[in-house]
Write a structure and sequence with these properties.
25% strand; alpha/beta; six-stranded mixed β-sheet; 9 strands; P-loop_NTPase; ATP binding; single chain; AAA+_ATPase; binds adenosine-5'-triphosphate
């Protein structure tokens, strides 16, 4: 389970995240949704221990990321693509992560198969398309067979088949009792994937609940968002 409690992150006078509270539960895909600049990445960066909070807490199974004993087995994350060295071969990138986290080498083959990169694993990452880099990032997140997955815009650069594949994959992952937190600015895509939705805008939570609760009385998640925020144009998405 992920618990974000009264979290704030300020950059000088900019309140990127302002008193944000939500929970992502096991067995559910939670969509963390908001337009560009809403505060999604800032929230995730604090959750993953990459930035310090200005106030509040972000907890993984009750602990801060840096206090986790075996972080890769607790939580797998995909932020900003694969995070790999372009000159390195994909398989070497994953083997290096596996080795430095005491994950058996055989698991590298497994995750490459899982994300559909087994046949191209020996290519250098710089030859990969954006979609392949996303898959490689996901493979890295899956190495430790984590109970929790945190993915920032995972379908960026994927073609329709890739998008469908990620959706099915995440739904299956959650169906096995795991926690999936999926950050996105894509409302239709999130509505197709998530069980629960947390909507953030200008650093503050606008609404949260099951998809059915949040969209009740609205034609779609999109119209719900526009009604809740008073956004008439959708120009920030
Ligand atoms: N390092 C930083 N220094 C100053 N301001 C920042 C920094 N990082 C983010 N911000 C600002 O904080 C706000 C929230 O940004 P954040 O990246 O968290 O939003 P987001 O919802 O992830 O949007 P996007 O999808 O565009 O990344 C924005 O106004 C952004 O310009």
């Amino acid at each position: 389970m992920i618990e974000v409690i009264g979290l704030s992150k300020h950059y000088r006078s900019k309140k990127a995240v302002d008193d944000v509270t939500f929970t992502a539960r096991p067995g559910r895909v939670t969509g963390f949704l908001g337009p560009n600049g809403a505060g999604k990445s800032s929230t995730l960066r604090v959750l993953l221990g990459l930035d310090a909070a200005t106030g509040g807490r972000a907890l993984i199974e009750g602990k801060r990321y840096r206090d986790l004993k075996d972080p890769l087995r607790a939580l797998g994350a995909l932020l900003d693509g694969a995070g790999s060295v372009p000159e390195r071969r994909a398989i070497d990138h994953l083997s290096w992560i596996a080795q430095s986290n005491r994950i058996p080498r055989g698991r590298v083959r497994e995750v490459l198969e899982l994300v559909g990169l087994a046949d191209t694993a020996k290519q250098r990452v710089k030859k990969y398309s954006l979609g392949m880099k996303q898959r490689l990032g996901l493979a890295g997140a899956l190495l430790g067979e984590p109970e929790i997955l945190v993915l920032d815009e995972p379908v960026n650069g994927l073609d329709p088949d890739g998008i469908r594949w990620v959706r099915t994959f995440l739904r299956d992952y959650a169906a096995r009792g795991r926690t999936v937190l999926l950050s996105s600015h894509l409302m239709t895509e999130t509505a197709d994937t998530a069980d629960d939705v947390v909507i953030i805008d200008h650093g503050r939570i606008v609404t949260q609940g099951s998809l059915a609760e949040v969209t009740a009385g609205h034609a779609s998640l999109e119209t719900a968002f526009f009604a809740l925020t008073g956004d008439r144009t959708g120009s920030r998405w």
